[in-house]
Amino acid sequence: MSDSMRTPLARVRGLGSAQSGAGHWWRQRLTALALLVLGPWFVVLTLGLSHAGYAEAHATLAQPLDALLMIAFTAVMFWHAQLGLQVVVEDYVHTRWFALTLQIVIKFLAVLGALACALAVLRIALGS
Amino acid sequence: MASTGRPLSPHLGIYRWQAQMVSSILHRATGIALAAGSLLVVAGLLTLAAGPAPFAAFGAFCASPPGRLLLLGWTWALAYHLLNGVRHLLQDAGLGHAVTAFVRNSWLAVIGSLLLTVLVWAWVLSGGGA
Questions:
Q1: Subunit contact B41:A123, Cβ cutoff 8 A
Q2: In chain A, which residues have their Cβ closer than 8 Å to the Cβ of B42?
Q3: Is A36 in Cβ contact with B82 (below 8 Å)?
Q4: Segment A92-128, tens digit of pLDDT
């Protein structure tokens, strides 16, 4: 017998801890910390451009630092959103197939969203 | 429910509303709202990359009444999620766990977020609109 309190049946069914909770917790905090800096940067940039036209907005995002930070902001934002929505689904959606479907859809959409933003910024920064 | 005199687990139908509950529920609600709002960021960047005409259409949507309402809601959601997120990070670091500090900081996040929203929109509107 192992020193685990779990029964062999529970073990073979894969019940119990997935051993990945701490990783999720830590990534959620790390992305939160990054967004603490990138979020206000995004708000200030957006407010500065709120009265600007296409040309000025395009020129601003074409600058290397702004392009870099925008890609970082959108990537981390979608990562953080996926981590948060994952917990919401885990807590409130109790129909197994529906919960799993939602988790997959959310992950796919988050990756698509981050890629779309990165491609858009690259096109702006590197010229179309 | 049988009255056993034992402590009950949190249940919305039994518990009196308190700052601890409100701040927690609002954090999740604003998080979900912001996840939906991220689509507006995608739309803004994609239209900016696509050219002047699509970006003008995006700007027109943002300036329209429903667009304004969404932006106002997201401004508050971001302000609250940000401030309350700082509160959570501080709690993760072991700070602010006393009940008095917990309640005070919850209210700070709520009132601070409203203040930030007013400041941001005062700036936007004083500049002649988005």
A1: no
A2: 74, 113, 116-117, 120
A3: yes
A4: 999 999 999 999 999 999 999 999 999 999 999 998 5
Q: Establish, for the pair of chains A and B, how many residue pairs have beta carbons separated by less than 8 Å.
A: 83
CATH number for the region A21-126 comes to 1.20.1300.10
- Chain A residues with CB under 8 Å of B34 CB are 81
Give the one of B45, B52, B85 whose C-beta lies nearest to A121's C-beta.
B45
* CATH numeric code, B19-126: 1.20.1300.10
Would the CA dihedral through B86, B89, B93, B98 be positive or negative? positive
The C-alpha atoms of residue B4 and residue B80 are separated, in whole angstroms, by 39
Angle of the A64-92 helix axis to the A21-49 helix axis, nearest 10: 130
Confidence at residue B130, expressed as pLDDT on a 0 to 100 scale:
46
Tell me the per-residue pLDDT of B36-64, one tens digit each, with 9 for 90 and over.
Answer: 999 999 999 999 999 999 999 999 999 99
